[in-house]
Design brief:
Residues 24-143 form the Poly A polymerase head domain. Residues 298-436 form the CCA-adding enzyme C-terminal domain. This protein has 447 residues and is an alpha+beta fold. It has 23 helices and 13 strands. The protein has helices at residues 7-18, 28-34, 50-56, 105-110, 133-139, 148-154, 158-169, 175-184, 193-204, 212-217, 220-224, 226-232, 245-255, 260-268, 273-276, 290-304, 309-321, 330-340, 345-357, 364-384, 397-402, 409-424, 431-446, and strands spanning 23-26, 43-46, 60-64, 69-74, 77-83, 85-87, 99-101, 120-122, 126-128, 141-142, 172-173, 278-279, 285-286. The strands form four sheets. It has a seven-stranded mixed beta sheet. A two-stranded antiparallel ribbon has the order 6-7. A hairpin with a 2-residue loop joins β4 (69-74) and β5. α16 (290-304) packs antiparallel against α17 (309-321) and α19 (345-357) packs antiparallel against α20. The longest helix is centred in the C-terminal third of the chain and has 21 residues, at 364-384.
């Protein structure tokens, strides 16, 4: 079995071997190559010590020297070269107490998480597959190397990684591996929010975001995202819905494009429903005002998982506005754009469409036709260049002050009144008209 190694990887391996050291491409790059996928990066493992690696290559960076990793710079590219190692006892579900270097490739591969990530390759020996990772690739299975109980006790995040790989690759989870997740899932509570966030996002933006259901079945979301568990438990039988809130959420995740903000918005858009659910005498559930409550919960989740402010703001704005139904006419769409934000309106339309596709199929046709009309009108608005915000208004606060109006809150209210007129009638976005109208509004305010 032959893998086409990049030239720079071959140069590193050749340099190691020329000086009597073993060297292999290892891990995800081997897995992806065997699957016919383009690896995002190439990692190398070797029996050479970090000090020896640094002597062999003129340009290196000590990126993970405590764990035996040196980044070798080849031009503008960096390649992680890690010394074979054996991890000592794990004390915190992540970090080994100590790391011992070894001359054995087998010992190094034994400490890795899954069989599909524990294969090595060089051109001299070919594929080194000690744990039947190639067979697991062929059969579409994620399986731990050795005892899954040990692998997860070493690093609890591997439980989320297992589900994430299932989502990314479309694989199943081997039975013993799944059982070990259920046994040890509570230890995920000791993993940092940043690491949990990274794995969650990778799962969500994968080709199979519905694998979040597997995370729920294994108890993972109960630890890292209990809001989802509450949604899975909340029924919502009505004319528009045939799924629980959680199942609806899974459907919407699969219906929206694979952007980080979009997938997070769909994950969190109905988190407020369980808290405000009411049930009428016919057994129908109602969730009045759930969008605002969902936005509050979304904000809490984003903060807890340490998302950056930019991402959190965009997600929360989409969640808050996902129940907005602008009237399907130019004024209605302009006002919708103003409320949601010009920057987010295209994403808003995607959220609306995904939300519909997670509802009862009998409501799809009418609602999708409505959304098609919104999109058509939106395109026409962009083509005309209609004013949609204060930034594009033909007058500014300074213009009004120069025309004799006093600065302060009243001035801001006048600007908003002028924008309101322009949203209704974009042809009124003329400097002379708006200055005159501003004077009239100011004079009325002083009466």
């Amino acid at each position: 079995m032959k893998i086409a190694l990049p030239q720079k990887v071959k140069m590193i391996l050749d340099q190691l071997e020329a000086h009597g050291y073993e060297g292999y491409a290892v891990g995800g790059c081997v897995r992806d190559s065997l699957m016919g996928r383009e690896p995002s990066d190439w990692d190398i493992t070797t029996c050479a010590s970090p000090a020896s690696v640094k002597k062999l290559f003129p340009h290196t960076v000590d990126t993970g020297i405590a764990h035996g990793t040196v980044t070798v710079l080849m031009g503008r590219e960096g390649f992680e070269v890690t010394t074979y190692r054996i991890d000592g006892e794990y004390e915190d579900s992540r970090h080994p107490r100590e790391v011992t270097y070894t001359s054995s490739l087998e010992e190094d591969l034994k400490r890795r998480d899954f069989t599909i990530n524990a294969m090595a390759y060089n051109e001299r020996e070919g594929l080194v597959d000690l744990f039947e990772g190639c067979r697991d690739l062929e059969e579409g299975r994620v399986r731990c190397v050795g005892d899954p109980q040990e692998r997860f006790s070493e690093d609890a995040l591997r439980m989320m990684r297992a589900v994430r790989f299932c989502a990314q690759l479309g694989f199943s989870l081997e039975e013993n591996t799944a059982g070990a997740v259920k046994d040890q899932v509570s230890s995920l509570g000791r993993i940092s929010a940043e690491r949990v966030q990274t794995e969650l996002v990778k799962l969500l933006v994968s080709p199979n975001p519905g694998e979040l259901r597997r995370a729920w079945e294994l108890g993972i979301t109960g630890v890292v995202l209990p809001e989802f568990d509450r949604m899975m438990e909340q029924p919502q039988n009505s004319a528009h819905h045939i799924y629980s809130v959680g199942e609806h959420t899974l459907k919407t995740l699969e219906a929206v494009p694979a952007g980080k903000v979009l997938r997070l918005a769909m994950l969190l858009h109905d988190t407020g429903k369980p808290e405000i659910a009411t049930r009428d005498e016919k057994g129908i559930y109602h969730f009045r005002g759930h969008a605002a409550g969902s936005a509050v919960i979304a904000g809490r989740v984003m903060k807890r998982l340490k998302f950056d402010n930019y991402t959190a703001s965009r997600v929360c704005r989409l969640v808050k506005n996902h129940s907005l139904y602008p009237s399907a006419d130019p004024e209605g769409v302009r006002r919708g754009i103003f409320q949601v934000g010009e920057d987010l309106f295209p994403d808003f339309l995607e959220v609306k469409r995904a939300d519909v596709l997670g509802q009862h199929p009998q409501v799809w046709e009418k609602k999708l036709l409505y959304l098609d009309e919104l999109k058509k009108i939106y395109g026409e608005i962009l083509e005309r260049g209609d004013c949609l915000s204060l930034k594009k208004l033909a007058v500014t606060g300074n213009d009004l002050i120069e025309a004799g109006m006093k600065p302060g809150r009243a001035l801001g209210e006048i600007l908003n009144r002028l924008l309101d007129e322009v949203l209704a009638c974009p042809e009124k976005n003329q400097r002379d008209y708006l200055l005159e109208e501003g004077r009239r509004l100011a004079a009325r305010a002083e009466e």
